[in-house]
TrEMBL record:
Organism: Megalops atlanticus
Compartments where found: Endoplasmic reticulum membrane
Protein name as catalogued: Prostacyclin synthase
Functional note: Catalyzes the biosynthesis and metabolism of eicosanoids. Catalyzes the isomerization of prostaglandin H2 to prostacyclin (= prostaglandin I2), a potent mediator of vasodilation and inhibitor of platelet aggregation. Additionally, displays dehydratase activity, toward hydroperoxyeicosatetraenoates (HPETEs), especially toward (15S)-hydroperoxy-(5Z,8Z,11Z,13E)-eicosatetraenoate (15(S)-HPETE).
Keywords: Endoplasmic reticulum, Fatty acid biosynthesis, Fatty acid metabolism, Heme, Iron, Isomerase, Lipid biosynthesis, Lipid metabolism, Lyase, Membrane, Metal-binding, Prostaglandin biosynthesis, Prostaglandin metabolism, Signal, Transmembrane, Transmembrane helix
Listed GO CC annotations: endoplasmic reticulum membrane
Amino acid sequence: MMWTIVLLLLLLLFLFVSTRSRSKNEPPLDKGWIPWLGHAIEFAKDAAKFLTRMKMKHGDIFTVRVAGHYVTVLLDPNSYDAVLQDSVSLDFSRYAQVLMQRIFSVQLPNHDPAAQRAWMQQYFQGESLAHLSYVMQRNVLSLLSSPEILQNPTDWKRDGLFSFCYGLLFRAGYLTLFGREHSCNSSELTAVYEEFRKFDGLLSKIARSTLKRDEKKMACVLRERLWDLLSPAQRCGTAEPGSWQQNYRQHLRDEGADEETQRRAMLLQLWTTQCNAGPAAFWFLGFLLTNPEALRAVKEEIDSLSLHAGCQQRLPLDQLQHTPVLDSALNETLRLTAAVTITREVLQDKTLRMADGQEYRLRRGDRVCLFPYLSPQMDPEVHHKPEKFKYDRFLNMDGTEKKDFFKHGRRLKYYTMPWGAGKNICVGRHFAVSIIKQFVLTVLTCMDLELCDPNAAMPPVNTSRYGFGMLQPNGELEIRYRLKRLNPTSWGSEGSSCSNTAL
Ligand code: HEM
Ligand SMILES: *[C@@H]1O[C@H](CO)[C@@H](O)[C@H](O)[C@H]1NC(C)=O
Ligand SMILES: *[C@@H]1O[C@H](CO)[C@@H](O)[C@H](O)[C@H]1NC(C)=O
Ligand SMILES: *[C@@H]1O[C@H](CO)[C@@H](O)[C@H](O)[C@H]1NC(C)=O
């Protein structure tokens, strides 16, 4: 009896504390009817659907309660700069660190996000970018000609397009950034990939703390297993000096991170660098295969590049930079399937001025969230028939890049934002574009790859991943493929399987 009363009192107190009302000049407040949780369940199930509903109800800015937090969602791209440009009242790294701890169990000491960014930038831009892209391409080609992918190069092989793309780009990316010469053992590579895919499957639940008990256990086991697989002690050979992952370790040591932290941080980096490119390549190839007109246009452009030098040849990167059709088709792919939420923590009360002149007060301790997927990317006011894949959406009539998109009569600075924007824009975007283009080009020129069912449609998206970068499909697109019958000696001469893969 006593306990029931205490519990009831606590509950009342809790409800009282968690009650908040809208003050003057604050965005519309929608708490949902479930105490504390608020809209968390609906949000997690399908964030795009939920936010669309809220937008219909409240407009371009509103505050919702999600698992005890108050999140102000801003959906007017003309006003995004008010959030992106303010690094005094709004903070990026705190929430990022909360997620880092929750997902990867890693806490970097003396972490300086700006320094880390600058460090990363050296690797993924300029000269080192060209080198990395080259190594990546070599790895893709040697994997494609390896026995795990193709027992007999002239036989058709069946697979799902998603697992084909993710599997290849993950392995090649892993070898490029984490692998070392002569040390690679293909069963190790497969183990890393398989464990990673399982971990990736749980990721959105880990991030939202919605794991069931057995899933929680599994997440821990997977994390441990991946830490082991990624740690140098477990891996054959010595680290290649000068490799990306070696340098990253050194960077961590300079920041004062101990061995254990370094070990754990590897998984964080594996995820950051490998989780988006594979799914992006899947959507890209999938849209091309299911849109014959787009495929034809892309192939025409590729033919005009005259790259017939053979498939194990290094692709001339400079030529790959003048491919407006391929670029537009890739940008269109990302418009439809990149769904990041950009989150900032409000450090001090702030007045947010919208493009239309309206001002809203943001409360300290809340979070602000942009969801560019809804607007501009899928906004019918910005893009005509936004749910349709139009490979030339980003091209003018004369074949040059189209940059004029409007909302409410105002020309948009941000009309698609797959990489985020502002100070925290994706560091790896140039690398990502380069490897996805290379990959698609390689597949289209060196392989016969087709849908098993010529009338197959793209699978729907897995709605639980809205907010976590590239979307993933619910289901597969069945394909069959084989290497083109080119000069037989042009395959595999770079060494079989995964040797010769050092940076
Ligand atoms: C299609 C592929 C990719 C997409 C759509 C993508 C998207 C993004 C986005 C939206 C962010 C910003 C997150 C935020 O503002 O909270 C980001 C950050 C980042 N991305 Fe990517 N990314 C891709 C591929 C890659 C690749 C291949 C690499 C590296 C090899 C990479 C490295 C990074 C890093 C290091 C950051 C953190 C930047 C920082 O801390 O400021 N990304 N990515
Ligand atoms: C590859 O590595 C695994 C352990 O990671 C080991 O069990 C296996 O024997 C190795 N295979 C070869 C061919 O070296
Ligand atoms: C969708 O994604 C969630 C979380 O990543 C995962 O648990 C679920 O199995 C996925 N559904 C399908 C059908 O792949
Ligand atoms: C595609 O997007 C990239 C930025 O990711 C941009 O640099 C490029 O000019 C765009 N190209 C086209 C044709 O839209």
